[in-house]
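Encode chain A's predicted structure.
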Amino acid sequence: MKKILLAFVFVGCMFAANAQEKPSTGDLFDGLTRPLTFDRMIPPYALEVTFDKTVHVIFPSAIRYVDLGSADLLAAKADGTENVLRVKAALRDFSRESNLSVITEDGAYYTFNVKYADEPVKLSVEMTDFIHDGEAVNRPNNAMEVYLTELGSESPLLVKLIMKSIYKNDRREIKHIGCKRFGVQYLLKGIYSHNGLLYFHVQLKNSSNVPFDVDYLTFKIVDKKVAKRTAIQEQVVWPVRAYNNVQVIDGRHNERMVFTLPKFTLADDKHLVVELHEQQGGRHQSFSVENEDLVRARVIDELKVK
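Encoded structure for chain A:
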């Protein structure tokens, strides 16, 4: 029995010796594997935090995901905002370096190496890349290929570019859908389709002297004809993205917006009602879209994306 125990001790010592002689590089594993090369790595940004002050990181889009490397860090979105992250140390003078990862609504991935500093030099950080803006081929060092559930198989970056292009081109593809009440005109300028998503280009013209404050906008699929004493069946279609979604249209001004919705079609007895409600006012706007308008949506492949 003693001989067996001595043999186990000897083998254990041999493994320990080999482990000390050949420390792991993180590149080699048992079996058929390939090492991760540095060209696959997303270089992290350096971030310093402290206990008595809060560091604010401002992202170019709404924050969707945050992961902290250790309990030494505290992070949360700033109250009332979607794109500002506040970060600070959970305890004084932690010695171990940690990390922080963030995914934003436009599909961008950011990673930070975080360490403690008594007096961080940068307490407010702006993450927008003003040179590339995440759209040029030569992108900054954050990945822009994170796909989000509500957009299906579409790239969030491409959705942003399509909405921007529709807005810039400013074409009026549809000339028969809209409404006008109390000096305010609400028009549907075009419907576009690409990869399982629909894009609605709308315009609000305020020819009055009183600003129009937007309360809320709804896209609802409703029955065309409802018999008396019959409950109205409504299905709300929620936009998954919006471009230039302004909340106030000043007097004698026009504004255009682009909304992205999941692709859908309508039965013969239903239509889509788009309602825009004024906050603390009665100048509500509403127009209807038929299925024949949806199926004639312009294919985005024919649109020049800028």
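Residues 54 and 88 are 5 Å apart (CA to CA).
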